[in-house]
Amino acid sequence: MTTSEMDNGTTRDELLQRVALMEAMIAEGRKSTARYGWIFVMWGLIYFVAMGWAVFLPFKEWAWPVCVTVGVVVGMVRTRRRADGSSESQRSRTIEAVWQAMCVAIILYVIAAGVSGHGNQAAYYAAVFFFVGLAHGISARILGWGVQGLVAFLFWGCGTAMFFVQTRNQILAVFLAAAFFGMICFGLYAMMLERQRAAAQVQRQVQHYA
Amino acid sequence: MPELPELDPVVHGKLRLAVLSLLVGVEEADFTWLRQKTGSTDGNLGAQMLKLEEAGYVAMEKRFAGRKPQTLYRMTAAGREALAAYVAALKQLLGAAL
Where are the domains of chain A? Predict the structure, then answer.
């Protein structure tokens, strides 16, 4: 019975086709699993680049508008490409909504503060940190993820510290510490977890279907 | 010689098997996404989804995303069991055929 018919009228080739179909569909489903760690890493790097440009390079007034615009465009393009239709859950939609609202709030705040010239630099960064901390805090609560909760407190702590620092260098140090630990390190950690989770999922499916 | 297992006809259908394999890896999926991934038509997919629903292998929920209606499907525990049993039967059949 090699390519022959089974007792129930099904051929071996037909069964192998079913196996191949299952493998292909499982792989398709896996592609749709959302990954967000890279977004934190990207924004952390953007903060560093923008800050470096603003301090060391000419046309410093363009540093933040250009870097933030690049970040928003890259984020939108990559997120749209990944979100191909929707195997997303209510929970992930809620978290996305929180982060989108935070982005809108920060963009409006940055534009309004920049155009009006109100507020000093420390208060300006503090507000941004409180916004980011808020989004992390809500996400942590929804996901029940303690590490993200700690990141929320890191941002809130840095936001609070901004009101007590004295010099421009201290402001810069707090800002870069928040960007490095809260964005880049946290993003890399999230990416590592996402990779481990994907590998574990493949392993489970391989064991299940082996 | 041991008796060869029967394949669950509800799971065995190509499109139904494709849908169950897609759903096994995700929390839930909407109709449009399933249609796009399987390359089927609205009518065919709708009919197959109904069969899976009647068998208790998937659960359907209708909701609105803004003003846009959405039909969401998720795999039930019975669906997972049926797929696992189908794979076990496949293994046995393919083993017997080798």
Answer: 36-80+108-203
